[in-house]
Write a structure and sequence with these properties.
Helices cover 69% and strands 0% of the residues. The chain is built from six helices and no strands. Helix 2 packs antiparallel against helix 4 and helix 5 packs antiparallel against helix 6. The longest helix is centred in the middle third of the chain and has 30 residues. The protein is flat.
């Protein structure tokens, strides 16, 4: 464990910036989504649930990019992962993860992916086409594969 902790620089500026962004991201979207679900005030403020959902979805995407870049910048590499095989495994994970994330997004649409249920924007029927015919939660599995792939690369 001590060896693994040696790869985390708690005084490194990007690590210091990553901690609040990692903590704020889920807190932000959960609070706003619950606020919408209970009061419908964000929908009223934006004039429609669709506009409010799109705005929250865009904010989530921007915060995700900020969080990911802050967390990944200037991280040291493990010597054991600095080889062509590890690189290929990382690329393969990114490929599989990308297929699951993109196909989930195409099947659900933006509001189906970005908290549309909190804004009462629902699909008429459950989505059962690929990738939902293969996995119950393809967006989560795809994102997990993407994060693991980037970490290995």
């Amino acid at each position: 464990m001590t060896q693994l902790l040696g790869y985390v620089g708690p005084s490194e500026p990007h690590s210091v910036a990553a901690v609040p962004t990692i903590a704020f991201y889920p807190l932000f979207w959960n609070v706003v989504a619950k606020w919408e679900h209970k009061t419908r005030e964000p929908s009223g403020a934006f004039g429609s649930p669709h506009l409010a959902c799109f705005t929250l979805g865009e904010a989530i995407l921007l915060l995700n990019m900020l969080r990911s870049t802050q967390a990944m910048l200037s991280q040291p590499r493990m010597q054991s992962l600095d080889n062509p095989l590890a690189y290929r495994v990382g690329l393969a994970l990114l490929g599989v993860g990308g297929v699951f994330v993109l196909s989930s997004f195409l099947a659900l649409g933006f509001t189906g992916t970005s908290l549309g249920d909190y804004f009462r924007i629902l699909k008429e029927a459950r989505v059962t086409t690929f990738p939902f015919s293969v996995l119950d939660n393809p967006m989560y599995w795809g994102n997990t594969a993407n994060h693991l792939g980037w970490a290995i690369i």
